[in-house]
Amino acid sequence: MSEMRKLLLSILSIGFMMAVIATGTLTYFYDVEVSDNNTITAGTIDISVDGENPWTTSVIVTDDAKPSLNFCVYKLVCNNGTNPAVVYTRIDNITESNNEVTEPELEADPSGLINDLSNVTWFDLAYNKGEGWNVLVKEGVLTVRDVEGTWYELTTLQPDECVNVLFSFHMKSDAGNEYQGDQMQFDIVFKAFQVNDDGAPY
Known about the structure:
The structure is a single chain. This protein has a single domain, classed as Immunoglobulin-like (Sandwich), CATH 2.60.40. It has 3 helices and 8 strands; from the N terminus they run αβββαββαβββ. The protein has helices spanning 3-25, 103-108, 144-147, and strands at 47-49, 70-79, 85-97, 121-128, 133-143, 152-157, 162-171, 183-194. The radius of gyration is 37 Å and the shape is rod-shaped.
């Protein structure tokens, strides 16, 4: 090996060693900040009816309905969740039967097939948050059968806020003896949606 080549290799080796030594001895100022255990918790939409959650009590509107008389049901709906909620309601799943057959009913309806109380009972709906009643369905316009399955928007409730809801039922004045003893059953449904939910209720 020539002297020049040996000298070149020696210079390269020394340069490499110096680079390694320099790399091992260089330091920098630095700082690290860490936020531990960061959390996302989902909010809640939760309503109660008359203090029940879930609502399980059946409502007996009346066991003595008569033509021309009003029968009212009042329900207190409260927002127990952590988010504002828009509350809707509807009447659903109507079923009807003769229930009890009387002599006057048989005279008016010998077949016993007329038992559509929902078609001869007016329905009205209103709500009150403490500032007076807001009427959504006026009496004498729609029957119980007419409103079945239709969602009605009541109001927006803030957390811990409540609303009184009035359901009124009024048997038509011209409902005759063919309806004596007949019975109608139905569901009252409340549903709450988050305020920024643009979807239609279902």
